[in-house]
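Worked example 2:
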Amino acid sequence: MAKIREVYTSDAYYPFLCYCESRGYEEMHDLVRCPFAKLTEEPDITPSLVSRIRLTYLAYLKAHPEEFLLEKKKIAAAAARAPKTGLDEAAEALQAFFRANADRLIHISEAVKAIAPRKLRRADVAAILEKADWCRLVDNSTYFYCGEH
């Protein structure tokens, strides 16, 4: 992956290079996180300079798409490995839902809908239910409430 300084070599890009340095952007793939639209708010960066910066970035992106695809895969893998936030609250909401429906079998899709605002995937809900001591698995996707232990 090329360094930003190797691509933006003209003296005209100096304010942009300072901006990148202050934000910790060193390589071209770091510019994926760069808010190009907000660059004009920075001192010494004019709208015409932003246009030139963006054009150079897009030209580099088109010339080296494999570098960005690999980086995108790395970011997605890291996000998948990262611990989910709000799992404790989701577990409490699931327990309350199961307690309210203690007289019937509950399919995993119902459990996901019961905590829908939390944006957890089916696999996340299944992982919570597998660890829970207040429910039991009937088959691959159906659970029942068995009370607190």
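The mean pLDDT is 86. The two ends are 55 Å apart (CA to CA).
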